[in-house]
Design a protein that fits this description.
The mean pLDDT is 90. The chain has a domain of 74 residues: 2-Layer Sandwich (Transcription Regulator spoIIAA), CATH 3.30.750.24. The protein has a four-stranded mixed sheet, with helices on one face. A two-stranded parallel ribbon has the order 3-5. The protein is built from four helices and six strands. With 107 residues, the chain is of the alpha/beta class. The radius of gyration is 13 Å and the shape is globular. The termini are far apart.
């Protein structure tokens, strides 16, 4: 599902967000990013998440930054996404915590 409001397009991720589904998720995200300059990703808190999905969002984040586009999460990471981020060490840097958890960078 996708939506747009206030100039920001939202892509919704639900269900299985794992290596089994990553190819179709990637295709969907690439198509979505190509048509938007500001994108937010909403990940269902009850979604099944593995490291491949985290890598997909990291790639989208960097690609958007290089293209001068905005890419953010609609809300802080929760559920299995948060657990995967913690186990994978993705929350070590202040910039990463700001992106994934929407926390202000350490001062």
């Amino acid at each position: 599902m996708t939506s747009a409001s206030a100039g920001v397009a939202t892509i919704e991720f639900v269900g299985e967000l794992t290596i089994r589904t990553i190819a179709s998720l990637r295709e969907r995200l690439v198509d979505f990013l190509a048509g938007s300059t500001a994108v937010q990703a909403r990940v269902a808190p009850d979604a099944t998440v593995d490291l491949t999905f985290v890598q997909l969002l990291e790639s989208a984040r960097r690609t958007a930054r290089e293209a001068g586009a905005a890419f953010a999460l609609a809300e802080p990471a929760a559920g299995q996404l948060r657990e995967t981020l913690e186990r994978g060490g993705f929350l070590a840097a202040a910039d990463d915590r700001n992106f994934w958890l929407m926390q202000a960078e350490d001062r």
